[in-house]
Design brief:
Blueprint lengths: L11 H7 L5 H10 L5 E5 L5 H6 L5 E6 L2 H5 L7 E5 L12 E7 L7 H11 E12 L9 H11 L8 H5 L11 E2 L5 E6 L1 H8 L3 H10 L4 H12 L6 E12 L1
Parallel strand pairs: 1-2, 1-4, 2-3, 4-5
Antiparallel strand pairs: 5-8, 6-8, 7-8
Length: about 250
């Protein structure tokens, strides 16, 4: 695991609590592409959000993450087998997997090695799906200060791999027969404190805190609070998903 870039273990409990869930329609569509639904591999599962979404559709999900701390905070489920393993060395048997999923994590991988591992474990005509989401757009006047925070305040603290997210994985190598995906989006109704709690899981925020010695979120919360109205009012927020899906 010497190549593993661990940006999330130090906040794994908050990551499990505050990261948004993906839409149920996404998992149903992915399951519909699978000729069989015996085994799915959710790679870089984090705290298990995608694995839990797959659970109604597959007999078993092996959910791996290179971070033992992330796995420790994953939500248990009878159909999910959580394991500590890298994306490039899953420990799964050859031609055993119906679906491989990677949610908001493929940009961290050694991609040639991961692609080889996915091809090794997938059954003939098995499906692989990589997806992610970029910066949400806040409604109305709230978006301008949020954009400045993302690009300027913590922008220099994003790891270079973040550029692949901003590019919506368009430049990501993908040596599979591609399948066009419908449009999916994460949709939430969040208060301002809930939004700030989510932002606390950003790797750039954690790196800013470590480098600068203070937290940039209270200043952002104060600025957004002037425009939010009642901070406990829930606003509708969304992130469009981008996907690379293939066989």
């Amino acid at each position: 695991m010497s190549d593993f870039k661990d940006h999330f273990s130090t906040a794994s409990e908050r990551y499990a609590a505050f990261r948004p869930d993906y839409p149920a329609e996404l998992y149903a569509w992915l399951a519909s592409l699978s000729a069989e639904r015996n085994l799915a591999w959710d790679c870089a599962t984090g705290s298990g959000q995608a694995a839990l979404g797959l659970a109604p559709h597959f007999q078993c999900i092996v959910a791996t993450d290179a971070s033992a701390e992330q796995i420790r905070h994953a939500a248990p489920h009878a159909r999910i087998d959580y394991r500590v393993a890298t994306a490039e060395a899953s420990g799964l048997a050859d031609a055993s997997v119906d679906l491989v999923t990677v949610a908001q994590a493929a940009h961290w991988f050694d991609l040639p090695r991961f692609h080889a591992e996915a091809k090794r474990v997938l059954k003939r005509n098995g499906v692989i799906a990589l997806w992610g989401y970029g910066r949400m757009v806040l409604p109305g006047e709230l978006d301008a200060p949020f954009q400045r925070f993302y690009a300027e305040t913590v922008g220099p603290y994003w790891p270079p791999e973040r550029a692949l997210i901003d590019d919506a994985y368009k430049s990501l190598p993908f040596p599979f027969a591609e399948i066009a995906a419908p449009n999916f989006a994460i949709k939430v109704e969040w208060t301002l404190p809930r939004l700030v709690a989510y932002l606390s899981t950003w790797s750039a925020v954690k790196r800013y805190q470590g480098t600068q010695g203070h937290d940039p979120l209270p200043a952002l919360a104060a600025e957004l609070g002037l425009l939010w109205g009642t901070p406990d009012a829930a606003l509708r927020l969304s992130w469009p998903l981008f996907l690379r899906v293939g066989r």
